[in-house]
Amino acid sequence: MKKLLLSTAITFAFATGAFADAGHAKKETSEAPEMMIGMPGDSAKVDRTIDVILLENDDGEMLIQSEEMNIKQGETILFKIKNEGELEHEFVLDTVERNAEHKIEMAKMDMEHDDPNRIRLDSGASGEVVWTFANAGTFEAACLIPGHYESGMHREVAVGEQMAQADMEYTSGKIKKVDAKAGKVTIIHGPLVNLDMPAMTMVFRADEAMITSLSEGQNIEFVADRVKGKLTVTQLK
Ligand SMILES: [Cu+2]
Q: Which are the contacts of 15, defined by CB distance < 8 A and separation ≥ 6?
């Protein structure tokens, strides 16, 4: 009897939409309607393109094929998606939890969504999703058409922490001297915008991995910041 009541309550909740609202309200505080995974990206400001292929294989698996989805916080990615399968597929970007919730909804009723974080493609069709990953964390790309997720259509989207965009201005420089022992490198550099410093020659700290990759006379693109009060090379191209 208890069980019956519970399932009736759930069915009712689905019908009224109360279930979905309650589920989302937990994560989305009133001041932040944006999604954990980020927001629709500006197609004029794409940092990188990732090609994605949706398909089934002969082993009965359904796959989302692409390079490793390792993304930097703040990056705007253009996903170029092609459905090379014989079935209809989707590409949805979201948290693992929200994908799981939406998968349950989809199992009840195959809904066609029109959200910026997802696209549905007929066999042979191509499409694009432009997305800005605002937060670091582990997210997911998935197809939520019933049965597809279970057949393999999901993959991890790892978003790595990054400094604020304003601090990410790379500066050109030329290595004057490398002192690996002391963990120091002397760089003749252009203006360091984030540190409010003009072009000059300065000594910076750098970690061991970075130091060993540097040699005198080398031209670099770098970001420096104060780490524990010392000027330190934090990013290197
Ligand atoms: Cu699919």
A: none
